[in-house]
Predict the structure of 4-vinyl reductase.
Amino acid sequence: MQEFTFEDMKQIKREQLGDQVPLELFQLFRDLRIGLPEIVHQEERLLRVAIEDCFCKGLPVMEEKLVCDLEGAIMEGALSRILERKVSVKEIRCNVNGDERCEYEIRLL
């Protein structure tokens, strides 16, 4: 994963990051070395966020296993604080399950 500063992230074109992804979330994930979040689907109260280069990438495949609950909890807490509203985060895809990347469903409550 490339090393970016928070100031670097501010300079990236918004279409690459997605219009609704808070830069603070990118900084948090970078600092914690979790991966790079990207919005892959968006509705009024629902987002799907994929994590590129998730820390679990490269672990042995174990079908029907979603192992990134901690990252989902971090994302839920961070987004709740950043957006100043409750959110619910659920992992729906995982590298360990054999999926191409980890993905989370985020519901704005």
Observations:
- The first strand starts at residue 36 and ends at 42.
